[in-house]
TrEMBL record:
Domain of life: Bacteria
Pfam families from the UniProt entry: zf-CGNR (PF11706)
Identification of the protein by name: CGNR zinc finger domain-containing protein
Organism phylogeny: Bacteria, Bacillati, Actinomycetota, Actinomycetes, Micrococcales
Domain Zinc finger CGNR: 145-187
InterPro entries for the chain: ABATE, ABATE_dom_sf, Znf_CGNR
Length: 188
């Protein structure tokens, strides 16, 4: 895969947020979208990297949650192979979030492309970053790496980081569930 670590984190954050903050099924289990203080905690958990969980203000959580349904639609369009729709949705997200590119220094002295929102507050910053991550996946022709789980009774999304790009399931649990069902069907 051609994503740098920053883009991969944004795409991972996108899938985590969609999976935690959109209704549907996870391996047959209904997803209950959190509200109130649990919402900020869920956003923080989804954005935890390297053991660091950000402090998520309620207003910031609401901004992020506001774009998650559209992020989900990008994953769905990509999974369906509808690149035109994925591009349209992503362009809409870029416009709504006011994503703007900026070069930021890393501790080692190198510079990396990051995206910021119309303001540097938590919600607008993450919303713009999520839109930019989807844009980068589409722009390097890797939008096919975004998918929706193929397992029965599951509609969670994933980012395929496998070498051969053939992932079909959101988790090993769903993959094993489908393999077991196929095995049982062959045994009949």
């Amino acid at each position: 895969m051609r994503f740098d670590s920053h883009i991969e984190r944004l795409l991972t954050a996108s899938s985590r947020l969609v999976n935690r903050l959109t209704p549907g099924l996870d391996g047959g289990r209904p997803i209950v979208v959190p509200t109130g203080t649990a919402l900020s905690a869920a956003v923080g958990e989804a954005l935890t990297f390297d053991g660091r969980t950000p402090s998520v203000p309620s207003a910031g959580a609401q901004v992020v949650v506001g774009i998650v349904p559209d992020v989900r639609r990008v994953f769905e369009a990509a999974s369906d192979g509808d690149i035109t729709r994925a591009a349209q949705l992503t362009n809409d997200l870029l416009g709504r979030t006011g994503a703007r590119p900026q070069l930021n220094p890393d501790p080692d002295g190198t510079w990396h492309l990051h995206f910021h929102g119309a303001s540097n507050h938590f919600g607008p910053g993450w919303a713009a970053g999520l839109a930019a991550g989807l844009t980068m996946a589409l722009g390097v022709d890797e939008i096919g790496r975004l998918g929706v789980c193929s397992a029965d009774r599951c509609d969670r999304v994933y980012v395929d980081s496998s070498r051969n790009g053939t992932r079909q399931f959101c988790s090993t649990r769903c993959q094993n569930r489908m393999k077991a069902a196929a095995h049982r069907a062959r045994q009949k």
